[in-house]
Amino acid sequence: MSNPSKTKKHNRINTKTKTKSNKGNLCHHLVAAANNFPNNLAVSVQKKDLKGLTYEELTFVELHQQSDDIAYALNQFGIKAGDKAVLMVTPSIAFFNLTFALFKAGIVPILVDPGMGVKNLKQCFEESQPDVFIGIPKAHLARLLFAWGKKTIKHIINVNGPALFGGQQLSRLLKKYPRTKPYLIQQLSQHQLAAILFTSGSTGTPKGVVYSHSMFEAQITVLKNDYGIQMGEADLATFPLFSLFGPALGMASIVPDMDASQPIKANPHYIFAAINKYQCTNLFANPALLEVLGQAGQKEKHTLPSLKRVISAGAPATLSSINRFSKMLTGTAEVINSYGATESLPISKIGSQQLLNTTNITDQGGGICVGSAIENVDIAIIKITEKDIKHWHDDLLLPTFEIGEIVVKGPQVSASYYHRDQATAQAKIKEGNSVRHRMGDLGYLDDKGKLWMCGRKAHQVQSNHLNVDKPYYSIPCERIFNTHKMLKRSALVSVNINGKTTPALCIEIEKSKKVDQQKLFDELLDIANQHQQTQGIALFYIHQEFPMDIRHNAKIFREKLAVWAQAQV
């Protein structure tokens, strides 16, 4: 937000980057762990069966040897370095073995979120043009039904089941091609394609993010240095991709029995049991899971004394969820909120103790504080525009406290999307040999260098109704209205009235509360008039239940609400 009384300091944070070797493979971390502490636990996968909760375990040396076996068998089967492989396997021992095998062999894994829907999945496979499809029987059935990758897939491999839908069983390949000597890991140049990770599509069309081994290395370095994760720790990993970092850090990955694409349905008792059994020191949890665990912990007065830190990412968690969950932690442990995206993660972070002290600013429309930049990351704020920006220059920078688009640069920032030249042009800015990524989020930097989030660029409402020509930003506006005790949540949208763009607020009421609609609307109008950020908002629509993304349960589908609100006008 513009504040002319503040110093016009450039809206940018910068630290020096470190040089890296030209060739490598992130699997060298696994090799080192297998050599240095071979019998330490690397992976444990929890399962609920008739016997109760059971655990399948793998040591570092077993993970190293078994992934070597698979890499060798894949090569003998005809799959070579540079080939692209769809991997649709549930979090399991096989998932870890296969993923590390693909990386060792230089085969490019294509990782997608099954929760993104059939239509989006088909588009992902058409764009990424996979050579190989590795999956469980359910995934192969879907592959046939929806013709996923039909034009390009040459090799089909079945995991954890018979080859009912064509192809070869992984277990048979391992018997047919037994490895007799150490596997030679592929060495790749630092910017060579190592993986394609598709965005969830919850805020737009899914896009394949090009990952290199140097990007993964940068993320591993961040987890060591900025988050203080050390060898020998145990991580309760609730997101498949993050769980892979455990073995690379010399940390055991404990995978609970839950659907990672729908964490809101997770059984908190399973997670508490796994944390207790392995005395987990780290927990990765998105906002939906934080809420589920916090509710259960509050109800049962449960504590999690072994945890040193909780890392939350994916979407901004509510302050109430963080506060509730934090009561289960002891000592100096806190929730670390991480900001970033598939294209650039993490970018900044803030601990819950510091975050909870910003409640008043957030409630007054100051946005959500997402903390200070990670080491080696440059955060800049530029003027809001829909135009492509080909080359970076410092004239693009906005002053502190002025809202604009968040732009980031760092070793963990992707340089392009896979086979999406237009999307790459829209999101990337060249600066010499490096690339800056436009986050598509709006925010500002304060005079202490902290980043404040103000919502998605696409969710800004540029009003021109009743001589009110001003922008409205989703997070500042919604957080002001959400202070009303009747509201569960709200969503800023635009409606068209007589050809004029008009801001409107969709609201969801707490189910347990009875509402006097006119009284509520009068009170919301009074709140709107008290704040510069919300003055001019006078249309309110009650919606029974907001459409939300299933993974985070924090991202509101405002585009759907806007269509609904227009029909109410």
From TrEMBL:
A Pfam family assignment: AMP-binding
CDD domains per the UniProt record, alphabetical: FACL_like_1
PROSITE patterns assigned: AMP_BINDING
Annotated spans, Disordered: 1-22
MF terms in GO: ligase activity
SUPFAM superfamilies with a match to the protein in the record: Acetyl-CoA synthetase-like
Annotated Basic residues bias: 1-21
UniProt keywords, alphabetically: Ligase
Transmembrane helix among keywords: no
Domain (AMP-dependent synthetase/ligase) ranges: 33-418
Domain of life where this protein originates: Bacteria
NCBIfam families per UniProt: OlefBLtnSynShew, PRK09274.1
Name of the protein: Fatty acid CoA ligase family protein
